[in-house]
Amino acid sequence: MLKLRFVGFAFALSVYSSWCVVAQERQPMVAPDDAPSYSLSNIRTESGRFFGEELVIDYKRTRAGYGSVQIAGKTANGPLQVFGFPIDNKESGTLRLENRFSMGRGLPSNIEIYLIVSAYWVGKQYGACMVSNAVRLGNPGDVTTPRQWTGDERAAYEKNKLFKIPPTGLPNGFEAVAGGTTLVPGMPIKAGWYGDWLDAQVVQLNSDDTVAVKYDAMPSVIQRPRAQWLAVDPDVAQRANANPSEFSTSIRILAGGSIPLPDDAVALEPSLKLLVGTPLMIEQGTQWQTVYVVNAEPTKIKVRVKGQKPVFDRDHALAKFAIKNETLAVMTKPESVAEYAANVAYAEGTSGSAFPSKDTPTGGFARPASKPVKNYTVSIAVPKGALFVPADLRIEAGTPLAGCWASKWNPITAISENDDGTLNVHWDAYSDAWDCCMSRQQLIIEEKTVRRLRAKSGATAEDLTKTLRTWSDTSGQHKVEARFVRKTATDVTIKTDAGREITMAIAKLSSEDQELLAGIQAVVENPFE
């Protein structure tokens, strides 16, 4: 896997990142008033500490704000996908970017860099907001400037702000929950939600004066402050004060949690002695994820997702875990020691891949083709031997892919293709509820899988003449959108939509392009003409 370099201790204000060129992205938007703002300056190249030249930029924060800051930019060949560490909570410092994809051929001579924050509002991705000026070397094209928001984007942003602000006024016939108001689990209330009041129930009271609330219309539990966010019917409040046992709830959560516990699971007790490999449950997004014990301490537990490399092991507070009753019943049996230990076994080169095996049972994936469209932003480097799913590649059901989530590549299996080129996919580590539709720019595939699918599809010359695709040279730095025209024993001719014909040696094309052309019959020139 491609690794990023981060300078520690003495150079703690330097941020190391790397990049690759990706497909065209949307123009960034004007930043909102509550976003941070940065000034970039003094862009230059310096000798790298390990890998040739580095691009170096000084930065200074001019306004604090909300949002995780990321690096963006472009070269003359297109936008950059930048991988690295955000610079949140740092007043100033130096960005150092290296091109780990250039194989020692140095930096592009034309490049632009700027900073962005994600515009993820009301559960939807609206692109990114530009939070700095753009700094440039050479001429990578027009200077990037932010665009104004559309009406829908403005409305989404204004609504998203309400999530952090309690509603004004009170529902008719309700009174505000005060410090002395009796609240008990199962008690019906109204709770604030994006500036409105919604029906809810009390799930759990916390020591910090917050209340775990389950909205009737939502599956998850949300922690809300007691003051300003909660309202109660005076009659219900009197009943709760007089007879608290009148109310009860079947919803159970971990302390500070947000997902109801399944009926067959309980919170993990600190006194329980755990075996290596014991299966536990931990919250992951809106789902419970199964993880396995690597090492247990009195207050924290190190766990692994089955099949992943040890480098991805993570420590979590003991209070974050739940355990199934079935596990409690069998973990004391002698045979469980060996069975559980197998859950955290890892053999280099034989398991732990982000990609499921092509032989992994898929259950047929006989599910409806219509899936919710999701956007999982790629924030880490593409592993060696993998690439983003090509636009012209036919993806069959069961094809192993991978997607970025929680700063790692997660195994995904293709379910079906859509007419617009997007893919319906299944996240292998999660339930069918995670099945969704994703763009090819969010998914990666192993090169060996691409070769297998190319060979199986048997693309003809006629097929290629109708397909506008991206052709790349062996370096990967030079690309062009064009259609196949003809092939000789040594050369290929392609044609852009602008009508420009390009003839080049097949040997100078990327391995993917060469493999595609291998199945196309060459045109044999007549020496007598």
Tally of individual helices: 7
Contiguous runs where pLDDT drops below 50 for at least 5 residues: 1-24, 100-105, 347-352, 358-369
How many β-strand runs? 32
3D shape: globular
> Into which percentage range does the β-strand content fall?
35-45%
Q: First CA to last CA: what distance?
A: 52 Å
What's the Cα radius of gyration? 28 Å
Question: Biggest β-sheet, characterized?
Answer: 10 strands, mixed
Overall mean pLDDT? 80
Structural class: mainly beta
In helices, the fraction of residues equals 10-25%
Characterize the structure shown.
It is a single chain. By secondary structure, the chain is mainly beta. Helices cover about 10% and strands about 35% of the residues. The protein has seven helices and 32 strands. Strands 1, 2, 3, 4, 5, 6, 7, 8, 9 and 10 form a ten-stranded mixed β-sheet that branches. Strands 11-16-12-13-14-15 form a six-stranded antiparallel β-sheet. A six-stranded antiparallel β-sheet has the order 17-22-18-19-20-21. A hairpin with a 4-residue loop joins β13 and β14. The longest helix is centred in the first third of the chain and has 12 residues. It starts with 13 loop residues before the first strand and ends in an 11-residue tail after the last helix. The N terminus is likely disordered.
